[in-house]
Design a protein that fits this description.
Strands 13-12-16-17-20-19-18 form a seven-stranded mixed beta sheet, sandwiched between helices. By secondary structure, it is of the alpha+beta class. α9 packs antiparallel against α10 and α10 packs across α12. The chain is globular.
Amino acid sequence: MNINEREIETLLDAGESLTLEFKECGIGLSRDLFETVCAFLNRRGGTILLGISDKGEMKGVEPSQVARIKKDFVITINNPQKINPPFYLSIDDLRINDKMVLRIYVPESSQVHRCNGRIYDRNEDGDLDITDHTSSVADLYHRKQAAYSENKIYPYAELNDLRKDLIARCRKIGGIQREDHPWTQMDDLEILKSAQLYQTDHETGKSGVTLAGILLLGKDETILSVVPHHRTDLILRKYNLDRYDDRDFVDTNLIESYERIMAFIAKHLPDPFYLERDTRISIRDAIFREIASNMMIHREYMNAFPAKLIIERGVVRTENSNKPHGFGPIDPALFSPFPKNPVIARFFREIGRADELGSGVRKLMKYGRTYGGVDPQLIEGDIFKTIICYPDPGVYADDPDNVAGPGALFKSGVESGVESGVESGVESEITMKILTILTDEPLGKAEIAQKLGKEKPTRYLHELMATLIDKNIVEFTIPEKPNSRLQKYRLTEKRDFSC
């Protein structure tokens, strides 16, 4: 996650705590750094700042050593001899007052981790070795099992309940992603154990395939016997608003569910030409790979609420059951990623279906406005929602010149955002034209259409004027009779109509 000077200063002012640790690390990694990483993984996660003394003084990291320190950290954190099970983390760097500071964000893990064979927990501003404290270790395992339903063990689920062809396929994909991928040398059970899809409950002593393992690799009948409510509903609703134009009811494993989502997107959404530097990329796929993987990774699977992806005119909406860590719209600038299903997320990263934690949101925001003309909206709550605009010429079928532009929000799109607690606005060329026209005098809808070069009001104009009324940007001259033949429109005192 990117950081800035103000964020570092805020952390320095806060001082070391349950979720914040300082390490000097001037020319190399300190010996106890990975004990802190282990403790953060086992407790609530947190931030580690390298180049800072215990007292919060900025000492800095030797600039010539930054590349080596970052490389050493990534190699070590993925070494099961150091951190077991391994956990992928990265380092951000920032220069402040000519000094280099490195930041490691450590999310809470759903697993119990060991560092050099020892179990560490976090207490205020210190790391505690609790390996020999049986009750503390038992409490830690119990807390992880209770907090992350993906770790629920099914001791009677066997390898025959999983799809061997899917395991073989994931083994092959892992090898393509990384030539020296360890899965290429493992049998099926070893892969399950390596990916934490086969675990042992240290409280009961029972071992078996976890819920994550069944969801990712299970046969359809196995999945439905464990979570009968599991499904993802894909709906196209652009013309038949009472029902749907197309639908795919997905209740299979997460690997193929992801592929079905992407196939539905490819079938129904445009993929405009886009160059990044000198290379053409599909921004549609870049956006919806993130949306599809998030629908799989961040869902609370014990909740019977069905996941939905609904394509409407100009807007795609998704809904997902969620264990929230906040409520309301997410601000990407202040966003701190929290893994809802870390085991599933890690498996998706291994097969190239997901990016590093937090980077997907940045990519979504980067391409979202280019694709749909409006920033994507992410709303945290018991039901996690996203709203993505897309270029849809069909929205303007009775507006052949498409003067609204690809990013214009039509009325139903705005209403969807408002209903989700997001104050969406209207931004388009045609809106600017209307506001300019109404600056001089109130006009009727037919007069507005003529000044826009139309013979008569179009459906799009009807919807847009209704939206401007709803947004309190435009008002009726005869508010008590909205349908009066003498009705005209005039500007209100409000002028801020940006998204």
